[in-house]
Design brief:
This protein is of the alpha/beta class and about 120 residues long. It has three helices and six strands. The radius of gyration is 12 Å and the shape is globular.
């Protein structure tokens, strides 16, 4: 299973970016092999609107089945849900820390958006 983690840079030691749609990048991790790749999301950092939708579409196009982040807004939540992608919120620390928390079942599976739109 591939999982995307919102991150502040392209390293496993990067801090988790608490914002999904406006995260600087996404680290896509193969949960089985541990391999990872970084994917830039800078285009959505300063978007006036639609950042969550576009980020969700980009992540879905990467073939992920799960997202780990701090927070997810309503439009990103709807787009990810429509793509069949599960979201886990409340992540903090490094990407590596967030992956360990996910594997240990310590992150909450999102049942709805946990912030309003345009959260910065």
């Amino acid at each position: 299973m591939k999982i995307a983690v919102s991150a502040q840079n392209g390293s496993m030691d990067a801090q988790v970016d608490p914002r999904f749609g406006r995260a600087k990048c996404f680290i896509v991790i193969d949960a089985e092999t541990g391999g990872f790749s970084a994917h830039d999301n800078a285009i959505n950092l300063n978007a006036t609107q639609g950042a969550g939708i576009q980020a969700a579409k980009n992540v879905a196009d990467l073939g992920v089945r799960g997202v780990i982040t701090g927070h997810v807004g309503p439009k990103a939540y709807a787009t990810l849900s429509a793509a069949g992608i599960e979201m886990y919120t409340g992540a903090s620390g490094t990407v590596r820390d967030a992956l360990e928390a996910f594997r240990a079942g310590k992150l909450s599976k999102a049942e709805k958006a946990n912030v309003d739109g345009h959260w910065i």
